[in-house]
Design goal:
By secondary structure, this protein is an alpha+beta fold. It has 17 helices and 16 strands. The strands form 3 sheets. It has an 8-stranded mixed beta sheet, with helices on both faces. Strands 13-12-14-15-16 form a 5-stranded mixed beta sheet, sandwiched between helices. A 3-stranded antiparallel beta sheet has the order 2-4-3. β12, α14 and β13 form a beta-alpha-beta unit. α6 packs parallel to α11. The structure holds adenosine monophosphate (AMP). Adenosine monophosphate (AMP) binds next to β6, β10, β11 and α13. Adenosine monophosphate binds next to β6, β10, β11 and α13.
Length: 435
């Protein structure tokens, strides 16, 4: 039916045929993260705009152009003073909110490092196009309070394990770079600024503006004109201080040991201001400009301090779930058969519905995971529901069975069928399941 309403620009609906991919991807994050000692955290969907200005950075495109504001929208109430004082925005990423929670909820006093993961929607007011939405979903994880190169490797390993679990890793590569720290970054910046200033006329107009605001971003430009200049730019890696060099080579050595394929890319800088040392992105091998990266992350040793905490190192990553799901569908990744229930009760006719409800309860009380439809559905639909749940036992009760107080039990694994009395049902299924 036509409706005058459409979903807002840059948003989408996840419909039942796609939902299993999303469930599978989110579950992969949960299991892979928890198996490496990460624990779940959830943070608000909106926060004070200043949190992002201070961390994501006032020169980043996210903060300068892509924030979604949140205000009270009721027409006939006055905006309260308190609401006027704070500009709230929808989260454009997770890390600042998690860092805020880490400080506000006293996680600095926990045994360090604190390893956290989450997933959910983030919002960026950008121009929608293929693979780029205004509301999209990210998987995000952070190791806070560990300066060792092993923490960087833990984050990259978790990233790789998730892609492995989703059967996507074969076509992927990790681009990696080191951005230095507070000690070596000023020198890098000077050298780069000198070089770019000498080549200003050869840059794309957009990048001329970037030279002034954040010269590092020019390295990451997708503009063809700029790409020619960037090829000749000084290599940041040559200006790393000894500590940063050592850190980076330990990261790379460990990745070698773990057989995680990486590509040293001196132009990788990432869009956010708070990164230090290791930065990485995951892309399809043939997506050389990283236009459609699947995710990325890096170290942010100054972030917690920016929010008023004591100096605390951190490293994390965010993956774009939407692009991951698209790739899984494109590549025909098969979802594993998931058995969501052991048994399904098919009721034919109104009497049968009433009689089977207590049967379902009795089966559940014996820890037999049992499904049924509680709505008016025909036999065919009920059987396809049983199929979707992947059950082993289909229990059928029709008019005749209601009269006889019996049920037909089909064992889908064995391909057998028998009729049992209502009273013998739990025992039969329990016995078969334990075999
Ligand atoms: P970022 O937080 O910018 O490092 O992004 C991490 C990942 O999120 C990217 O590699 C993309 O896979 C995904 N992503 C970023 N922006 C969008 C967007 N507008 N729409 C869909 N996915 C996005």
């Amino acid at each position: 039916m036509a409706t005058p309403f459409q979903s807002p620009r840059g948003t989408y609906d996840i419909l039942p045929p796609d939902a299993p991919y999303w469930i599978f991807a989110r579950q992969a994050l949960k299991e892979e993260a928890e198996s490496l000692g990460f624990q779940r955290i959830e943070v608000p969907v909106f926060e004070d705009i200043r949190l992002y200005e201070r961390t994501t950075g006032e020169t980043s495109e996210i903060v300068t152009k892509e924030m979604f504001g949140v205000t009270r929208a009721s027409k006939d109430v006055e905006v309260e003073k308190e609401d006027r004082a704070v500009q709230l925005v929808l989260r454009p990423e997770f890390t600042p909110g998690i860092a805020r929670a880490y400080l506000e909820r006293g996680m600095q006093a926990f045994p360090q490092p604190v390893k956290l993961y989450t997933d959910g929607s983030v919002f960026r007011y950008s121009r929608p196009q293929k693979g780029r939405f205004r509301q999209f979903e990210q998987m995000n994880y952070e190791v806070i309070g560990d300066a060792s190169p092993l923490a960087d490797v833990a984050v990259i390993t978790l990233t790789w394990n998730i892609f492995k679990r989703l059967s996507l890793f074969k076509e992927l590569v990790v681009d990696i770079n080191s951005l230095g720290d507070l000690k070596c970054r000023p020198k890098m910046r000077r050298v780069l600024l000198d070089f770019l200033s000498q080549n200003l006329t050869k840059l794309a107009p957009l990048d001329v503006e970037r030279v002034r605001r954040n010269p590092f971003r020019v390295l990451d430009s997708k503009e063809p004109k700029t790409l020619v200049v960037v090829k000749k730019a000084p290599q940041l890696l040559d200006y790393l201080c000894d500590d940063c060099k050592k850190h980076f080579s330990q990261v790379l050595e460990t990745l070698d040991e773990l057989n995680i394929p990486y590509n040293l890319d001196p132009t990788l800088v990432r869009g956010l201001d708070y990164y230090t040392r290791t930065a990485f992105e995951v892309r399809r091998v043939d997506d050389e400009t990283r236009q459609n990266a699947f995710g990325g992350g890096g170290r942010y040793d100054g972030l917690i301090e920016l929010l008023g905490g004591r100096p605390t190192p951190g490293v994390g990553a965010a993956l774009g779930t939407d692009r991951i799901i698209e790739a899984m569908k494109e590549q025909g990744v098969k979802l594993p058969d998931s058995k969501l229930a052991d048994a399904f009760v098919v009721a034919i006719g109104e009497h049968a519905f009433k009689v089977t409800l207590p049967l379902v309860e009795r089966l559940k009380a014996k820890d037999i995971r049992t499904g049924m439809t509680m709505t008016k559905n025909g036999l065919k639909e009920q059987l396809s529901m049983a199929d979707r749940l992947g059950v082993r036992f289909v229990i059928i009760v029709g008019e005749r069975e209601v009269r006889d107080k019996t049920a037909i039990v089909k064992d889908m694994d064995e391909g057998s069928q028998e009729t049992v009395s209502f009273t013998g049902l739990e025992n039969l299924i329990e016995k078969q399941l334990s075999r």
